[in-house]
Structure to design on (619 residues):
C-alpha cells in the first residue's frame, strides 16, 4: 500500500483521477489488483473506488450507504445539479469563442489570454461571459473582463475540471472530469426521459 | 534507344518540352486559375491563350463558361501541393492490369520474332506500367495518411469532416477491391520462363503490393477510429447544446432524488473528502535529532524594520498656558464632532470631519482625542455611541493592527 500513499491521499481529499491529472496513478488504478488493494485499505473508512461508465475517471464513493453518507450524497447532488447549467454554458461559450467545431474534451488546452482577446472585441460574447461570471457557481463580483475570466477559470480549477500545469502561466488543460460531467448529463437525460437529443438528424448524416 | 520512329520521338520531345515550358512561363496566372477555378483571360495575351489551349493546358468546358485548367493539370497541381480538397485518387486497377497483360504479350512476340530492340522498348514500357500501378497506390496511401494526420483539417466543420472521412473510406474500399483484382498466379504464369519478367511482375510487384495492402488496412483502421471519434464529438456537442437549452427553458427543473434511492447510481456516489492531518510526535527518542534539525531549518521571517511612524507624544503634559489652551481647543473641537454625530444621526468618519472642517490638528492626535473622549464618557452615555475602528496590520509579518480611521455613529436606542 505504501507505493500508493500519495494517490490515496488525493483520492481521499475528493480528487478525481484521470489520465490527464495523474497519468501514472491512473494507469495503476486501471489494474484490477490495485483496485482490490485500495478498496481493501479503504474499507474501514467506509470508502471505495468508483469510476464513470468508460472508466476514464476514478473517485471515491461510500462503501455502505448509512444515514450520514446519504446526507452527504444529497448535498453533493444538489451542488452538482446547481452547477450543470453554468458548466454547460461555459463549455458552449469556449467552443464558440475559440471557433472550435467540437466540444471540449479531456486533454484540450485553453490559453487564457487568447480566450480574453477573442471575447474582448465581441459584444455579445462579452455579455454572455459577464452573465456567466456572476452566476452563483462562479461568483465573480468584478466588472472587468480579465478578472471575470480569471475567476471562472479559478473556480473550474478548484472543481477539478481544469488543470493548470504551471502556476504562473495562464494556460489550462481540460481534465477527465469533463467526461464525468457529460456522463452525469446523459444519465439524467436517460433516466428522466428528457427531450434532449444527441444524435445528429438523418439529414446531417446523409 | 532505338524506337520505332526516331522522327516521331524527336517531334514528341520538342512539343512536350515546349508545352512544359508554357506551364513554367505562366506559372503565377495558372496557379491563380487553379485557386479561383477559372482563368482570368485578361492576364494573358491573345497568342498565349491560343498556345495554352492548343497545349491542352486550358479549356473552355462550355461556350458560356470562362477558360479553366484541364482536369489533368488541376490534378497534377493538387498532387504536387497535397491539396486534399482536390486531390484525386485513382483506384482503377483493371485498366492497368490490362495494359500490363498487353505489354507482356507484345514483349514476348517481339522476342519470338527476334526483334530485340522492340522487345527492349516493350520491356521498358512494361516496367513503367508496373511502377505506375505501384505508384498509384503509393499516391493514394500518401493522400489518405495526409488527410488522417491533419485530422481532416482542410475542412472546417465537423459535419464536413465526417463526410470527408466517409469519402476516404469509400476510396479505400475501392483501392482494396483493386488490390484483390491482382492475381499473382496469373502474374507468375505471365512471367514464366523469363527472368526479367519474373523479377518485375512477381518479386518486385508482389512485395510492393503486399506492403501497400497492410498500409491500407492500417489506414482503414485509423479512419474508422477517427470517424467514431468525430461522431462522439458531434453527439457530445449536441448533448451540451440541447441540455443547456432545456435547463434554460426549465429553470426550476429538479431531477429525481438519486442519492436516496435504494440503489444509488455509481455516478452520484461521491463521498466527502477526508484530509489526513499529522503533527510532530515526540514519543520516539530516535527522531528527536531529525525534528530538531527540522525546527532549525524553518525559515525565519526576516526582521521587519517598521517604518518610522510618526507618533504623538503625550509625555510632557500641559506645561504652560499655551499648551493648555491648545488642549482645550482640541477638546472643544472633539466635542463639536460628537455633537455633529448626534445631529446627523448617522455614522461619521473622524478624519473626513477633520478635513471637512479644515481643522489643523494632526490626524493622529485628533483620533487619540476622539478615543479619549469616548473612553471618558459615563457608561450609559458610552452606550449611545458606536465606535468603529478601521484597522490594518502593520505589515505582512506583523499582525499589530494600526488604526487608520474611526467612525462614530449613534447607537439605536
Amino acid at each position: 500500500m505504501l507505493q500508493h500513499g500519495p494517490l490515496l491521499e488525493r483520492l481521499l481529499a475528493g480528487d478525481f483521477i484521470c489520465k490527464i491529472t495523474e497519468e501514472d496513478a491512473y494507469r495503476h488504478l486501471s489494474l484490477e489488483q490495485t483496485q482490490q488493494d485500495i478498496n481493501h485499505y479503504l474499507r474501514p473508512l467506509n470508502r471505495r473506488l468508483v469510476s464513470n461508465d468508460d472508466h476514464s475517471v476514478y473517485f471515491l464513493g461510500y462503501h455502505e450507504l448509512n444515514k450520514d453518507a446519504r446526507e452527504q450524497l444529497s448535498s453533493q447532488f444538489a451542488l452538482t445539479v446547481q452547477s450543470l447549467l453554468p458548466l454547460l454554458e461555459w463549455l458552449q461559450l469556449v467552443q464558440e469563442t475559440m471557433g472550435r467545431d467540437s466540444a471540449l474534451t479531456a486533454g484540450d488546452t485553453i490559453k487564457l489570454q487568447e480566450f480574453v482577446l477573442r471575447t474582448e472585441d465581441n459584444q455579445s460574447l462579452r455579455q454572455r461571459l459577464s452573465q456567466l461570471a456572476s452566476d452563483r457557481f462562479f461568483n465573480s463580483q468584478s466588472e472587468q473582463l480579465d478578472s471575470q475570466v480569471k475567476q471562472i477559470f479559478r473556480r473550474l480549477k478548484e472543481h477539478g475540471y481544469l488543470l493548470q500545469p504551471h502556476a504562473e502561466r495562464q494556460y489550462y488543460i481540460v481534465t477527465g472530469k469533463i467526461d464525468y460531467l457529460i456522463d452525469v448529463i446523459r444519465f439524467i437525460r436517460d433516466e428522466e426521459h428528457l427531450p434532449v437529443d444527441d444524435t445528429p438528424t438523418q439529414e446531417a448524416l446523409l | 534507344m532505338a524506337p520505332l520512329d526516331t522522327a516521331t520521338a524527336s517531334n514528341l520531345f520538342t512539343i512536350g518540352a515546349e508545352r512544359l515550358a508554357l506551364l513554367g512561363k505562366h506559372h503565377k496566372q495558372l496557379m491563380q486559375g487553379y485557386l479561383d477555378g477559372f482563368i482570368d483571360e485578361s492576364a494573358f495575351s491573345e497568342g498565349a491563350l491560343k498556345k495554352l489551349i492548343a497545349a491542352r493546358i486550358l479549356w473552355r468546358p462550355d461556350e458560356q463558361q470562362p477558360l479553366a485548367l484541364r482536369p489533368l493539370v488541376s490534378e497534377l497541381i493538387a498532387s504536387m501541393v497535397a491539396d486534399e480538397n482536390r486531390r484525386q485518387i485513382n483506384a482503377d486497377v483493371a485498366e492497368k492490369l490490362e495494359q500490363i497483360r498487353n505489354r507482356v504479350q507484345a514483349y514476348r512476340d517481339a522476342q519470338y520474332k527476334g526483334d530485340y530492340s522492340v522487345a527492349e522498348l516493350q520491356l521498358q514500357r512494361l516496367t513503367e506500367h508496373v511502377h505506375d500501378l505501384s505508384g498509384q497506390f503509393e499516391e493514394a496511401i500518401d493522400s489518405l495518411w495526409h488527410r488522417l494526420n491533419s485530422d481532416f483539417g482542410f475542412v472546417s466543420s465537423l459535419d464536413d469532416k465526417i463526410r470527408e472521412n466517409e469519402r476516404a473510406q469509400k476510396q479505400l474500399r475501392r483501392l482494396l477491391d483493386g488490390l484483390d483484382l491482382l492475381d499473382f498466379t496469373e502474374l507468375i504464369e505471365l512471367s514464366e520462363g523469363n527472368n526479367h519478367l519474373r523479377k518485375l511482375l512477381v518479386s518486385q510487384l508482389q512485395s510492393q503490393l503486399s506492403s501497400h495492402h497492410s498500409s491500407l488496412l492500417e489506414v482503414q483502421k485509423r479512419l474508422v477510429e477517427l470517424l467514431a471519434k468525430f461522431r462522439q464529438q458531434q453527439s457530445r456537442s449536441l448533448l451540451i447544446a440541447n441540455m443547456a437549452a432545456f435547463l434554460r427553458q426549465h429553470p426550476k427543473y429538479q431531477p429525481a432524488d438519486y442519492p436516496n434511492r435504494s440503489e444509488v447510481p455509481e455516478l452520484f456516489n461521491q463521498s466527502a473528502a477526508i484530509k489526513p492531518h499529522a503533527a510532530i510526535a515526540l514519543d520516539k527518542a530516535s527522531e528527536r535529532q531529525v525534528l530538531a534539525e527540522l525546527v532549525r531549518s524553518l525559515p525565519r521571517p526576516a526582521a521587519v524594520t517598521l517604518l518610522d511612524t510618526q507618533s504623538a507624544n503625550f509625555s510632557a503634559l500641559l506645561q504652560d498656558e499655551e499648551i493648555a489652551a491648545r488642549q482645550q481647543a482640541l477638546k472643544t473641537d472633539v466635542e463639536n464632532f460628537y455633537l455633529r454625530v448626534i445631529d446627523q444621526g448617522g455614522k461619521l468618519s473622524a478624519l473626513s470631519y477633520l478635513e471637512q472642517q479644515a481643522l489643523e490638528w494632526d490626524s493622529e492626535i485628533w483620533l487619540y482625542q476622539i478615543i479619549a473622549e469616548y473612553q471618558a464618557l459615563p457608561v450609559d452615555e458610552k452606550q449611545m455611541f458606536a465606535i468603529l475602528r478601521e484597522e490594518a496590520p502593520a505589515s505582512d509579518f506583523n499582525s499589530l493592527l494600526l488604526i487608520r480611521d474611526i467612525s462614530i455613529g449613534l447607537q439605536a436606542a
Observations:
- Chain A touches chain B through 54 residues (CB under 8 Å).
- The first strand of chain A starts at residue 17 and ends at 18.
- The CA atoms of residues 160 and 177 of chain A lie 7 Å apart.
- Residues 2-62 of chain A form one domain.
